[in-house]
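hiii, so i know i said id send this last week but things got crazy w the move. better late than never?? heres the sequnce for the chain we talked about at the cafe, plus the structure i predicted for it. fair warning i was half asleep when i ran it
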Amino acid sequence: QVHLVESGGGLVQAGGSLNLSCAPSGSILSFNVMGWYRQAPAQRELVASITIGGVTNYADSVKGRATISRDNGKNTVSLQMNSLKPEDTGVYYCYGETRYGGYWGPGSRVTVSS
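okay and structure toks below
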């Protein structure tokens, strides 16, 4: 069973920064794609993703403010977000996809106060 362990959420003031980290239970090299999603009222929305080859993708709402990276040595994927806005508030879910399927972390709450 694959588990994704998230850390780094919390309360931050608008304009501040935070770093979310995700560590899979197995080797990160098993994951072709990893990313972060944010729960919106209707669905989970992609915030950022990164492939095993290092190709990144960002939601328009975070472009220029977010950086996703994967550290194979530390077996983690991180999301650095700067210039946070109240609309960044939500539950952030780590996602990882292997050849066997997709997996979700339990979610990490981020609250940005104005």
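btw The mean pLDDT is 95. thought thatd interest u
miss u guys!!
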